[in-house]
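Example record

Each entry pairs one chain with its bound ligand, adenosine-5'-diphosphate.
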Amino acid sequence: QPIFSAHDVSKVYRSGEVEVWALRGVDLDLFEGEMAVLLGPSGSGKSTLLNIMGGLDRASAGTVRFADQELTDYPDSRLTRFRRDHVGFVFQFYNLIPSLTAWENVALVTEISRDPMPPEEALSLVGLDKRMDHFPSQLSGGEQQRVAIARAIAKRPQVLLCDEPTGALDSKTGILVLEALDRINREFGTTTAVITHNAGIREIAHRVFTFQDGGITQMHVNERRIRPQ
Ligand code: ADP
Ligand code: ADP
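Structure tokens for the complex follow.
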């Protein structure tokens, strides 16, 4: 059962006379509980699709559905509410508040969520139970990214969208971050889509989608992981 369906989605950016087609009629279904990976060269449209799915941006054409909600025509206020209630985002840069501890950074989000997990539970899921009182400057890049993941999952989102979460990390540290995402996906069945170049992702993904010039040109199923239906 797909929880997310992007159908025939196009995105064109215009500035003056110049048009950039970031997406050209893309179809992508995500099954509930699956770990999907988006691969492809820089500029091929991965971030644009992730942002449209998460309600950060709008398609120029096509439709996007989440469960029984048709997001395409939502007014901004409703799209914002959808995003806040259902979607967790992780980006390349962690955007932690430097003057707050790891615990406090996560608590900022849980205080305004409907059914959050305690910050210490989210931090312990990403292996940071011993670092809760540390400030971002006292943590390594990989640890800061895991705080950002804890912050994203603490509101128990139905879907987790990660745009190059390993992009600023060396490959070994990146694997620790991917392992944290894998654990969350297995433990909570959180539907997850990840843009990453880290080769370790091939082990944990259910499906890998390859982008090229604003389209999906290849889909690979990982036979070693049973995909949720
Ligand atoms: P990535 O390759 O990691 O997706 P980019 O550097 O392409 O990152 O994009 C970073 C941000 O800048 C994104 O939010 C994207 O929407 C925006 N962006 C990318 N290209 C352009 C552009 N030509 N003009 C304006 N904004 C852009
Ligand atoms: P990827 O994530 O695969 O690196 P993006 O989705 O960031 O690719 O970008 C796809 C294309 O759209 C690129 O040509 C990029 O420069 C362009 N683009 C992305 N965001 C913007 C923006 N805000 N304004 C103008 N062009 C953009």
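Residues 171-188 form the longest helix (18 residues).
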